[in-house]
Write a structure and sequence with these properties.
It comes from Tumebacillus amylolyticus. This is DUF2797 domain-containing protein. By secondary structure, the chain is mostly beta strands. Helices cover 11% and strands 40% of the residues. It is built from one helix and five strands; from the N terminus they run βββββα. The protein has a five-stranded antiparallel β-sheet with strand order 1-2-3-4-5. It is globular.
């Protein structure tokens, strides 16, 4: 993984096995095979799936 699937930024870091963090849009994402799951990191460190935010109609990402 060389680019963020959300913002296409190259400034990403590996934080775990198949887990990455984007310093451009502050989104954490994991890659399993061809499936990518993206998460917003909350102030308390918890992760909220962007799919859940899309379902709730709130896609604002803290930048």
């Amino acid at each position: 993984m060389t680019r963020c699937p959300h913002c296409n930024c190259r400034d990403i870091g590996k934080i775990g096995t198949q887990q990455y963090y984007c310093w451009g849009c502050f989104v954490e994402f994991s890659v399993t095979g061809e499936q990518v799951k993206m998460f917003q990191v909350e102030e308390d460190g918890s992760l909220i799936s962007l799919d859940q935010l899309a379902d709730a109609g709130d896609l604002s990402i803290g930048m």
